[in-house]
Specification:
heterodimer, A: alpha/beta, twelve-stranded mixed sheet, B: mainly alpha, two-stranded parallel ribbon, 26 helices, 6 strands, 73% helix, globular, signal (chain A), TAT_signal (chain A), Extracellular solute-binding protein (chain A), SBP (chain A), MetI-like_sf (chain B)
Chain lengths: 412, 602
């Protein structure tokens, strides 16, 4: 990954005038029919999450309606699809209704398929961002954004009320752009009626657990990547990425001669299954192909919702640890509504909202003092020793770690 | 009749002639435009990154990849300049390295062989035997082709898994259990599940176009049935089998989610790495790998096209061979043997095709506790009724899928026929035109998706304006571009094999080129046109990557998008949506075949 200044990626700074669609009269009909849009390059970006083809379905209210200052502002919040549309529960709908009932604003969700990468591409192509903030950033996302773009995609959070309540250990952005709003833990989930999962990483190498573990591809799945990172945290990286930052990661096992690649070689010899996505792995595990799977520590919350036998959904924290994946929200540097976006961020940190997000996203709050039902902790398990890599540790390393693992694991 | 009237009639006739004479050219131009807008330009915006890094042209990334044993195995050593003799020695040694590219090709070859082996008997059955429901079965053969990989994975684990149907059946029969999951075998069988239908469908169309009178002539001249088959039928069916094989190779060479779902990372393919590199924004390396994929796939396609061009056979008409009944008319060995073979095949097909699909249906009806339930379908109804505006709902997904697929098919048919006509002539540079026309099959879908984002959704700057396109029309064009090569590949062999004298006499009688295509050539290759239409429809229904990229509004999602969205901890809701997709597409194929079935001509 290169961070060189590149000529092709430069954009002229744009004045943030309100967008106008200026379609030549003759072409208007045909263009609308073909889902084409034409707009002045020096105008502000599209406000509606890349809505390129609204055949007159543009409802941002800023076209032609002469509302002056009284107009209801629209806040466009970009996020990943599961945040607003999961088959079980998702916080999107509740957040939209709650926010709109409190503030005179309309909240619009944007969920491009490539998630953060979509906005990186947008910024690089000079097409305007079209959203005010992003909800669901991880440490890795930030590292990728900063490695790819010369300009700032995100602005500093600045004056966001309630930010102090965010737990110290979760604040993952050294530049204070992303504000954490929840966190999840990646751990082992096992079927207690079929096996007793080992207590430690080393235990997975025992003969009795041969072929017992299903993990995911670290190159394509966030749980797979979290588990790989956890093994690096435990065994060290053997200096694989030292050309990145000149520092080798010391493993928690205290053995400098044994790194994560050694561990994975043994795991592979013990027949670990590395499948593609989390869905692949979880459904194969549900069908009983293997008794242990890499998943989330909140598994029992879902199992309980479905009335499943909790004995078949046991959580194991290897060495009492789990890899923490805090999620943050950050303001786009290009936001049309920065003040409203900051208001939304404070709203997301309120105790009541924090509790709702945790329950509806099936995760853990990012702040102290979130309002959660007293029995929430019975099903949503937290490790006594959460581990996670900091921004600085991941920067310049994570790609090399994944690549080295790929080369060893698939060296056919 | 006055002179003025005569003049007007003459003018009208001339106008019509003019339109007809130029129809072909106009269609060719439109086809090229669609290809440039929805394929070439977008793909080029990404592929260019293979050689342009940070604004400077470089071949470094190429060189790195080509000489990397991880990608090219022993071949990489040859490319990095090691002596050929040493490399040949390691190639012959048992622990040789194939590299990711080599392994990808290897599994694609295996998958192709398996697909042909499983597809041919089906074609034989459908083309040569008459039984109730034959036409419906023929329409349904293509259904597996459109299933999202997650559905296939669910069906396969339930069928071939540790606790699967197959093992249960084997145990019941007192046979040893099989450990199929997460092996190369499972991946190959899944690829055959996807692609054998393609082989079967293309071959059936060709077999049904064999002219019975040619066989009768051969027989009356004293050839035995075997000899007649070898000399008359086989030469016409053979190219179609190769078409199916070439397409299968290209598809399985670019295989992506299914290898990891059923095999595991040890069986990693090039496309999996392309996905990872794109996700991590390592575009240069991703583009190089995509170009490698493109080169291999195009080489296979072009080799096949050369064969096809050299082996064009002459067909004069289409009075299909009479079909035999499945019940043997007389209990002779010659009658019994092929039917016994078909009976064995029926069992195999039952395990490979029917069992996984039945398992998917069962999964959609099974609750978390293993009992039968309709709760997943209730979820669909519930989501339809109460889903928020920004959530994906089943009915719009069905409606969009059908609308896009219908429009894409109607667009892909003329595109495919025009290109088929252009590529059945001989001229210098035809290979180039062939390659250009087939390229959409050979480029990585992930790369095309990224290109569509950059090229269409973000648009291009022209003189201070930014022109962008997204939404329904863009999706339809992108789908048509993905589907039209199938129309070309099914229609082209038949057109090439047509007796030129038919066309020439029509032309001599004053018909324009376009008119000849419409009234003479298309009717003669009609079964192939219908097969091509079914493929174009199937490609559109099953397409995912371009659709999510281009559905820039919140309302252009399709059934595969809905399936993906409904995947949760339990796959019930997703499988229920998958069954909806199964039923809707199955019905659509039956309708397509019925529409195209008996009336010939347009």
């Amino acid at each position: 990954m290169t961070t060189d200044e590149s000529e092709t990626r430069r954009r002229s700074a744009r004045s943030r005038t309100r967008r106008r669609f200026l379609t030549a009269a003759g072409a208007a009909g045909a263009a609308a029919l073909a889902g084409c849009t034409a707009e002045r390059v020096d105008d502000g970006g599209d406000e509606s999450g890349g809505d390129g083809g609204g055949n007159g379905t543009d409802e941002d209210g800023s076209d032609g309606s002469d509302g002056g200052e009284e107009e209801t502002p629209t806040l466009t919040v970009a996020t990943y699809t599961n945040f607003i549309d999961a088959p079980s529960v998702s916080p999107g709908e509740w957040l939209k209704e709650e926010f709109e009932s409190r503030y005179d604003a309309e909240l619009e969700w944007a969920t491009p398929d490539n998630e953060v990468n979509y906005y990186i591409e947008r910024a690089a192509s000079g097409a305007g961002i079209g959203a005010d903030l992003y909800v669901g950033l991880t440490t890795e996302d930030l590292v990728r954004v900063d490695g790819e773009l010369d300009e700032d995609l995100f602005a500093e959070a600045g004056d966001v009320e309630g930010r102090d309540a965010v737990k110290e250990g979760l604040r993952f952005d050294p530049f204070d752009r992303a504000v954490p709003f929840d966190t999840g833990y990646v751990s082992l989930v096992y079927d207690g009626t079929a096996t007793e999962a080992p207590e430690t990483f080393e235990g997975l190498l025992d003969d009795e657990h041969a072929g017992a573990l299903i993990a995911q591809n670290p190159g394509g799945s966030s749980t797979g990547r979290a588990f790989l990172l956890h093994t690096i945290n435990r065994f060290g990286d053997g200096g694989v990425a030292s050309d990145g930052d000149g520092e080798a990661i010391e493993g928690g096992d205290g053995d400098p001669d044994y790194d994560y690649l050694d561990y994975w070689a043994e795991l592979q010899a013990n027949d670990v299954r590395v499948l593609g996505s989390w869905d692949d792995a979880y459904s194969a595990w549900s069908e009983g192909e293997a008794p242990i799977v890499v998943s989330y520590s909140t598994d029992q919350v879902f199992a309980d919702m479905e009335g499943a036998d909790l004995e078949e959904h046991q959580i194991r924290f290897l060495n009492d640890q789990a890899y923490a994946n805090p999620e943050g929200m950050a303001l786009f540097a290009d936001a049309d509504e920065p003040d409203l976006a900051r208001r939304f961020m404070s709203f997301m940190l309120e105790p009541e909202v924090q509790g709702e997000i945790a329950q509806r996203n099936v995760a853990f709050p990012a702040t102290d003092g979130a309002e959660l039902p007293s029995d929430y902790a019975e099903l949503a398990k937290e490790p006594s020793d959460p581990v996670t890599f900091t921004y600085d540790e991941l920067q310049g390393s994570v790609d090399a770690w994944v690549e080295a693992w790929e080369r060893q694991f698939a060296g056919n | 009749m006055t002179g003025a009237d005569g003049g007007r009639a003459g003018r009208l006739a001339r106008l019509r002639e003019g339109v007809e004479a130029n129809a072909l050219t106009a269609l060719a131009v439109l086809t090229s435009a669609a290809l440039v807008v929805a394929f070439y330009y977008p793909a080029a915006t990404v592929l260019i990154e293979a050689v342009v890094v940070d604004g400077a042209v470089t071949l470094r990334v190429f060189a790195d990849v080509l000489t990397d044993p991880f990608y090219f195995g022993e071949l990489a050593r040859l490319l990095s300049g090691e002596p050929p003799a040493a490399v040949a020695r390691s190639l012959l040694s048992p622990d040789r390295r194939l590299g990711v590219v080599g392994f990808t090709a290897y599994q694609a070859v295996l998958s192709t062989v398996a697909s042909v082996a499983l597809g041919l008997p089906a074609a034989y059955l459908l083309a040569r035997y008459e039984f109730p429901g034959r036409r419906t079965l023929r329409s349904l053969t293509i259904v597996p082709f459109v299933l999202p990989s997650i559905m296939v994975a669910v069906g396969f684990v339930a069928t071939f898994g540790e606790n699967g149907t197959l093992n249960a059946a084997l145990t019941a029969l007192g046979l040893p259990r099989v450990e199929l999951m997460f092996t190369l075998e499972a991946v190959v069988i899944a690829h055959a599940f996807y692609n054998a239908p393609l082989v079967a469908r293309v071959t059936t169309a060709a077999w049904e176009s064999v002219d019975a009178s040619a066989v009768e002539t051969a027989r009356s001249l004293g050839a035995g049935p075997v000899r007649a088959f070898y000399d008359v039928v086989a030469p016409q069916v053979y190219p179609a089998v190769l078409t199916g094989a070439a397409l299968t190779f290209v598809f399985t060479f670019g295989t992506f989610p299914i290898v990891l779902a059923l095999g595991g990372f040890e069986l990693v393919t090039v496309e999996v790495l392309v996905y990872r590199l794109v996700r991590d924004l390592s575009y240069a390396e991703a583009a190089v790998l995509a170009i490698v994929e493109l080169a291999v796939s195009l080489a296979v396609l072009l080799a096949y096209l050369r064969y096809e061009a050299r082996n064009a056979t002459n067909a004069r008409g289409a009075r299909p061979l009479p079909r035999r009944s499945l019940l043997p008319p007389a209990p002779t060995l010659r009658e019994l043997l092929p039917r016994a073979g078909l009976a064995v095949y029926a069992v195999v097909a039952g395990v490979v095709f029917v069992a996984p699909i039945a398992s998917m249906v069962l999964a959609s009806l099974t609750g978390g506790d293993g009992a039968l339930t309709l709760e997943h379908y209730r979820f669909l109804v519930e989501r339809q009724r109460t889903g928020a505006a920004f959530q994906v709902r089943p009915l719009p997904a069905i409606r969009n899928s059908l609308a896009f697929a219908t429009a894409a098919t109607l667009l892909a048919l003329p595109m495919g026929v025009v290109v088929a006509v252009l590529t059945t002539r001989r001229y210098r540079g035809r290979t180039l035109v062939d390659a250009a026309a087939m390229a959409p099959l050979a480029v990585s879908g992930i790369i095309v998706g990224l290109g569509l984002l950059r090229g269409l959704v973000f648009g291009v700057e022209v003189a201070g304006w930014r022109i962008a396109a997204g939404g329904a029309v863009a999706i339809v064009v992108a789908h048509a571009v993905s589907g039209y090569p199938f129309v070309v590949r099914t229609v082209s062999p038949g057109l090439a094999g047509l007796d030129r004298s038919l066309v020439e006499s029509a032309r001599a009688l004053g018909a324009s080129r376009a008119r000849v295509i419409r009234d003479v050539e298309i009717p003669l290759v009609w079964p192939a046109v219908v097969a091509g239409a079914a493929f174009a429809f199937a490609i559109s229904i099953g397409e995912f990557t371009s659709t999510v990229v281009l559905s820039t509004g919140a309302d252009a999602y399709t059934m595969p998008v809905a399936i993906e969205r409904f995947i949760g901890r339990r796959l019930g809701p997703a499988t229920a949506m998958g069954v909806v997709l199964l039923v809707v597409t199955g019905l659509s194929f039956v309708v397509i075949e019925r529409l195209g079935g008996d009336h010939r001509g347009l």
